[in-house]
Amino acid sequence: MKKKLLIIGAIVVVVVIIVVNLTSDTSKSTKVQATVASATDLTEMVSASGRIQPQTKVDITSEVTGEIIDLRAKEGNSVMAGDLMIVLDTVRLRAEVDQARYALTETQARLEGAKASFDQAYEEYQRQDKLYKDKLTSETAYNNAKYTYLNARATHEAAQAQTKQLEARYAQQLDNLSKAKIVAPMSGIVTFVDCEAGEIAPAQTAFTQGKTLMTISNLSVFEVEVEVDETEINKVELNQSVDIEVDAFPDTVFAGEVVEIGNTAILAGVGTQDQSTNFSVKVIFKDPNVRIRPGMSATVDIITSERQDALAVPYSAIVMRAFDLDSLERARAAEQEQGSSGVVAEVQAADEPAAADTAADSADTAGSEEGEREEIKGVFVIRDGKARFVQVETGIADQKSIEVTAGVVDGDSVVSGPYRVLRTIKDGDNVEIIKKRGGEGD
């Protein structure tokens, strides 16, 4: 009896196993997120951050060294072009003007004496020349008159040159004296002051930068100077519209416009992992706002392109796959004959070599495989429960979606996640949608 029970139990177990195997789905499905390709409005933007500054500003420095004895302007003052801003001590400058004038007066007197000697020598030379031609004087007297004349002429010319030199020096000293009074070169607002009465203002020369004493800015027009990465600078053009967000006004978006694009690259972090190549772009505010202040932080979104009713998929859905070139060509030929919609079918993905391959085979084929692979951009479209790789052509993109101009039609469900799945999924894999966006629910 016990033996019969054991046999019956074994039979039941076998039957249960067979039933389970027959009823269960032996295929393994990859759980994916899916999004329906649909028409939407896309706005492509290039974003960057920078600081607000007046479009026009002038840094005022002193052209002569002197003590500041009078400071007429303060930060925040409104000034007009020509207004007196700073007065420097003129004692030393006036002394230098007096010295230059005295030296010039002396040289002018010497010039008059040289001119009289020159005229006298010239007249004597002309008289001796006439007498010598008429043979009424000796050759010695003629030569003495000639050389005296030539010497007087040279002395006169030297005195003229020295006089002109001292005239230029005198004019320069007068100019330096006039620069002791620093006036506003333009109308605007004093936005920066870095000097005090009693301080020595250093002169700016060809060899020294000098010190910025104050800054006058035109606050009617503001701009933001940002740096755009080299990979995106080709999208930026003059007069493009810009949305400007100022950190100080989080709920306000200001309208702007691109007015200047730099031609010289700005290198940062050279020789490090953070090395970057950027280009300067200037954006102006279209509408003046009295609440904006120089130095405020701002973020600009440069609108580089817009598209209405563009067929789009999530940016994350776009993947790159390397395929065997020969099988790819066969698949494309088959697609043309069958009029398929772009699915790259029966194509061997150029993944890593199988573990069963020998080292010798890998060495023999390594060089040839590199030349036979082709990187293809595409998406995985879900059809009949399987992921099918579809080659696509793309257009503009915003922060979330990208335009698809070929390869996908409106209503196609594409695999949009998770990221780890998109890295490993292959053409023909069974998939199960766990989250669907842009269409009906799960």
Q: Would you kindly provide a brief summary of this structure?
A:
The chain is an alpha+beta fold and 442 residues long.
Can you tell me about this structure?
There is one protein chain. The protein has 442 residues and is an alpha+beta fold. The protein has four domains: 30-42 and 311-437, Beta Barrel (conserved putative lor/sdh protein from methanococcus maripaludis s2 fold); 62-89 and 180-212, Beta Barrel (OB fold (Dihydrolipoamide Acetyltransferase, E2P)); 91-178; 218-307, Elongation Factor Tu (Ef-tu), domain 3. It is 31% helix and 37% strand. The chain has helices spanning 2-23, 91-133, 139-178, 325-338, 359-372, 419-424; strands at residues 30-36, 38-60, 66-71, 78-79, 84-88, 181-183, 188-193, 200-201, 214-229, 241-246, 253-261, 266-268, 276-285, 297-314, 319-324, 373-383, 386-391, 393-397, 401-406, 413-417, 431-437. The strands form four sheets. A six-stranded antiparallel barrel has the order 2-9-13-11-10-14. Strand 10 (241-246) and strand 11 (253-261) form a beta hairpin. It is elongated and about 170 Å long.
